[in-house]
Amino acid sequence: MAFDLGNLLQQYLGGAANSNGARALDDFDQVAQNAPRDTMAQGVSEALRSDQTPPFPQMIGQLFGHSDANQRAGMLNQLISNVGPGLLSSIAGGALGNLFRGGETPAAITPEQAAQLTPEQVQQIAEDAERNNPSIVDRMGDFYAEHPTLVKTIGGAALAIVLGRVAEGMRH
User: Fold this and answer.
1) What is the pTM of this model?
2) Where are the domains of the chain?
3) pLDDT digits (tens, 9 = 90+) for 89-104
4) Could you tell me which of 78, 63, 72 has the C-alpha nearest to residue 116?
């Protein structure tokens, strides 16, 4: 029997399945493997900005805490690209400033440098990045669409939002 993505997603149209987080967790694996990546990115972005989920900075801190070293570095590079150079040394209690020698912003934060930050510091960086450039939410959605296993750590309610958005995107 072939996998029917459309039939599975039908239940998420209009947010009807938002109350079933456990089911969303199971369904998410199937959808992540079969849905177009850009549609997944839109769904993750919607979950990151939804008023039905924790605030964006809190979710980013949570995702950072569940990430491996390379994912942490990649995520931080997305975040700091949206924060002005003047803010880098002052945000997160100066945590980023301590990573940069001589005041120069590195071409990219390394996994080793990312390991020096806590999820709480990253939450502050995300808050400053969002305030500086609200489109960072979409960039982070795009980044995390590449890491569906990590997205599963944001919880069933957020996954139901992702699945609902994917369902809408696939319907059009």
Assistant:
1) 0.81
2) 12-171
3) 666 556 566 555 545 5
4) 72
